[in-house]
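User: Please run a holo structure prediction.
Assistant: Happy to. Please share the sequence and the ligand.
User: Here you go; the ligand is NAP.
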Amino acid sequence: MAVVLEEKIESIYQQVKARNPGENEFHQAVKEVLESLGPVLVKYPEFSHHKIIERICEPERQIIFRVPWQDDKGAVHINRGFRVEFNSAIGPYKGGLRFHPSVYLGIIKFLGFEQLFKNALTGMPIGGGKGGSDFDPKGKSDNEIMRFCQSFMTELYRHLGEYTDVPAGDIGVGGRELGFLFGQYKRITNRYESAVLTGKGIGWGGSLVRTEATGYGAVYFVREMLKVRKDSLEGKTCVVSGSGNVAIYTIEKLNQLGAKVVACSDSNGIIVHEKGIDLDLVKKLKEVERRRIADYATYHKDAKYIAGGNIWEVPCQVAMPSATQNEINGKDAKTLVKNGCIAVGEGANMPTTPDGVKVFLDAKIAYGPGKAANAGGVATSALEMQQNASRDSWNFEFTEKKLDEIMTNIHTATYETAEEFGASGNYVIGANITSFIKVANAMVALGLI
Ligand code: NAP
């Protein structure tokens, strides 16, 4: 039986690969989920009958469009825009927009696929989608960013709606970009439809805690994993990759819970500061002045900048990858474990390669995969939608408490599911199975759509 099932799942995976050639990140994300599903099909044979796995791997809709824009000198540029509306069985498509030169269909599809499971874990009524462009915001003026965002939204708006598809930010898309995107949506539609976009500014429909939510949430998840092991973050030495939105608020919450972060990074290099990263300085450099992390060392003579350095070689007890996909490979994972790392909480999406994940699981350290650990961002986006729907705005403490409860519930659900399916402490299996069952049940209930 087990062999037949394995063959069946392998054959579905081979079909996904053949139907989506060259989309390596998408293949990787699908394989990881499918590998968890054998016991689910034994318990729920109806999912096979309804071909749920085959259907769940095929996005409901994929939109690819031209984004022409003009730079400050009047030169014309053409980028490509994407929106993959993956699954709306439990709610409107929901997921961020990524602006980065590495973006192509395979990246957006992997992110959309991860998102649909992550969103199911939050317990909120949101389906999964993701979008973005191969546009590189780095070094562009505010006016160039605005013209690009306006052009992007001029196509995207027709696919959006509070009950249809609700984007947010991701790499390269923060408050500034979301402002320009929302402004253009409002201008084209003549509707102040707040809940069509999340991550909005506080003065125009945003939610308190949304900016902090992914980082804070990832730290809550690690806190819970350590609690099960009768341990805590107090006094732990931590390393956080990246220095963008997720990294900054991961560092902030780690500090608040008594841990010390000794390194962070950007795509050019790493900063190691044994005394503890000066978060106010990182915020100033990255959020306000949009500078490189290398400049940190000019303010702190006892900090070291290593151009092209590998952050996972910095010894730590807790590692929180918060930059991008596949940033920890098998060798990095081995280095982390050898240096005494006891917990990994993924703020980024799929930051660990499959061989790296195997190292963490074999070493039995507390490993929180992104689709569970970084769900706090989208969960708070759903809280933003709730506030928009009721024309209300909640205070910081109330909203943060809700985020904490959601992350604690995700931890409990994934932990208990792993136990139930005989994989104690394995949050990969716990997260994949919990979320798959939720979406699959909804898909069965809604009929063949
Ligand atoms: P962000 O604010 O744009 O920051 C991204 C950070 O990662 C920057 O420091 C960036 O350095 C670094 N980075 C990006 N691409 C890189 C690459 N190829 N190699 C090395 N470093 C790279 O983005 P973010 O919102 O923090 O997102 C970070 C991760 O969290 C992504 O995986 C995203 O999908 C995930 N995530 C975000 C949210 C959210 O609410 N924002 C929610 C869930 C998951 P440079 O500035 O040098 O590029």
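Residues 396-420 form the longest helix (25 residues).
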